[in-house]
Specification:
heterodimer; A: 10 strands; B: alpha/beta; seven-stranded mixed beta sheet; 7 helices; 31% helix
Chain lengths: 294, 306
Amino acid sequence: MSTMNPAMLEISRLWKSFPTPDGGQTVIVKDFSLKLAQGEFATLIGHSGCGKSTVLSIVAGLSQATHGGVILAGRETDEAGPDRGVVFQSPCLLPWLTAFENVMLGVNQVYFTASKIERRQIAEYYLSVVGLADALHKRPSELSQGMRQRVGIARAFALQPKMLLLDEPFGMLDALTRFELQQVLLELWRRFRITTLMVTHDVDEALFLSDRVVMMTNGPEAEVGDILRIPFERPRDRKQIMEDPRYYDLREHLITFLNDRSHLRPSNDPAFNPSPDMAAEMSASRLTIPATAT
Amino acid sequence: MALIELKNASKGYGSNGSRNEVLHDVNLSVEEGEFVVIVGYSGSGKTTLVNLIAGLEKADRGEVRFDGQPVKGPGPDRSLVFQNYSLLPWLTVTENIALAVDAVFPSWTKNEKSAHIEKYIAMVKLSHAAHKFPKELSGGMRQRVSVARALSMDARMLLLDEPLSALDALTRATLQDDISEIWQRQRKTVLWITNDPDEALLLADRVIPLLPTAPATLGESIPVNLERPRDRKAVNHDPRFKSLRNELINLLLDAKGKQRSTVSKKLLLPDILPEDLNNANNFRFLLRRTPRRRNEEKREEIELIP
């Protein structure tokens, strides 16, 4: 992913704070900047409560930034819309509609100029690709947790959004089902190359799926702690990646950050030595790099 | 002689017409003092297996033996820990554990019993919360109570059915370390069921995959010859751990791959672009009756063979 590509998403100096009862402000997210290239898959990783989901919901337009802005495909955006497909931790399906009808809800919205047959074909296509060809007309209550999340993924992709926003999409699944769904997601992403921002706290998931992993420091006042580029070639194969000698080094790097360094703030840490990716991101957003890093 | 032995045990549910076999010809033997972990997908029959050994259910075919004797029902020689803690909400931590101790050691004096209970509460590091009620405890603390209760019975075998699955990653890690430390002191026979390959490799002497064939069967067991105590950070560098991890995950993923249904159908994806509803200047669709297409001719057709 070259930096020459125009940015699909630019999060510029984003702050989010809430007023406290005593008249002060609690800063949740502090000066968060990030650029995603067209077709890039980036992951936000950090501990629970560090503000990852806050960033994602601001990008989704479900929550407003206190300062700073979100620029999507060259246009500032501050409200929700079908140009961003969102998948939450729980699939949020309407329980009285079948899997097919749940997907059709969104499809009817954005393809209203298409014929009914074509709209049905679209919904059927995406549901089949995620492996639900024989469960199209089942209601959520008849589907397992993993299958429901597949519907959620199909629903997001069917809209052909400019961006995909995934908020711990596999957090509620067991380890093995999670592996399967990561494969499904990666396969769809490979086919449609939709720019994706995912939030997770699963190190293996971040490594397997992303081009870049953005590590966030612990909240409140969460900021970007460091950025790691994942060098594995695509299409990726889990077996191959797990046998790659670099895999466990990268894994170790992320785990060490989460265990030992996530409470350190780069802006206050004199020994902070940003990775090249982090430095590029910082200079692009005109943030100050600590003097020791130069 | 093995402490637990299953020979060609099968179990299914439902009556003749719609009978659904869950476990088929399961063979398992666990030696005294061994820590065995069974890893499998949700819904693949792990809990049924625990229930057979615990004596909560009877095998349809085959044998389940404990210490050479056929298992006829639950008993205090096999203590259980469930995913949902199963504590009585109107009893404190101490009282919940006392319930088990009273049942297993009825002849003990009051003082003996309370010393015994205290010992186990201290072992799971809950002395400060001994008089709290379950609702006042976090999920991790509740599961500690449940573990203390199981240990306090001094059973010959501990059966744990996904004990940590309901907890978040950090709590899970601390509990894994604590339980592993307790086990190293006591060396009880343990059968631990989980869906997490990493948990299995950190804890077990031997890992057995439960393969999601329908009905499920047990795969070849994988011995884990890593020294204890196992440090969760250090094992990441251990080439033996890495290769065991790869072996186990691949085995389970491959088994799932084979089991997939073979629906085959032809799909058509119309090459239509979505309308841009976010951009008010761009409401050009008002001027046309048909959708935008990337290419008028192009339609993607794929043959779906999962």
